[in-house]
Amino acid sequence: MTNSNSKLRAFSTPLLWSLSLGLIVLVAEFSGDRGFSISTTEMLIRLIAVVGIYTFIGNSGIVSFGHVGFMCLGAYAAAWAGCDPEWKEIMLTDLPEILRSHSYDLWVSLTFATILSAAVAMLLGLGLMRLSGIAATIATFGFLMILNSVFANWDALTAGTSSIIGIPTSVTVGKVWLAAVVVIAGAWWFQNSRTGVLLQATRESEPAAQSIGIELTRVRLAGFVLSAAICGFAGALYAHFTGFLSPDSMYLDTTFILLAMLVIGGMQSLSGAILGAILVSWLIELLHLGEAGFSIGANAIRLPAGSQQLALAFVLGAILLIRPHGLMGRKEWTISLKNRRREAQLPSKEVSLNI
Prior knowledge:
Strand content: 5-15%
Radius of gyration: 21 Å
Strand order of the largest sheet: 1-2
Order of helices and strands: HHHHHHHHEHHHHEHHEEHEHE
Number of helices: 16
Largest sheet: 2 strands, antiparallel
Structural class: mainly alpha
């Protein structure tokens, strides 16, 4: 019973969230509501990005404002790989020949975006991961600003502020759900791996971690590269979902929304990251509907423009006041077989569904 319980606990968190998200996807598919299907796809892409950010911030304790930069890089990599070669020959003349003269399918595009984001994170992280605390946070914000400035002004590589159009829209809600399942499983594996546990030790106390021989730079770099790869992957999915791209589509607004999702759900819990992404995405959709206007009886109601940002800021402030560690804190959503004697001896830190 104990071994079965342990094995079930080990895999129950990614299993529960994968099944729950699958249920939402099924409802979206069979409802016949195209708007619901689109909003569900957007929610899943944001969820993948938030899980990517959590993989580094949650395990290392270092707040990063730069991960949306990797998302932007992944999106542009997908555009470089997937767009029509004739359009690229005219607009993106600084692209290497192997990208400018060919158009690649979705899977090649996603792979290229993921690898490129990871490679840039590796080079950046060699220097950046030697920093700690506010210095590291400011450095990541600087990376985001530099990347946005380069992408907005290098017209021959990114089309600048004119936007890239014609990216193949081959992403479906089912494919994004499958991607989310893989990413959640990968993030869960990492946080329970030896490197993940060592990284969490650096989060709790850097001096104590160093005193027992943990190499801060190495374990932080591992988390940083993995999280950047996931964010790049999410950006590529976004590009193949919307079909167009501009530098400002992934900048400060996106950074605020994704970090708000993580803070509201809980920065030190994978379940918190997922829950925050779902709840905030639904809140954003409700506010979008409110800003577009709706009727109750004979009364037409329309929220003023900008209500989305105000409401999100209010919710974020309220959560920080009431639950400073987010809705889930450090808890995970798990299933455990009933073992009353063991539960009586060991106080659980997890949200459990006894069956």
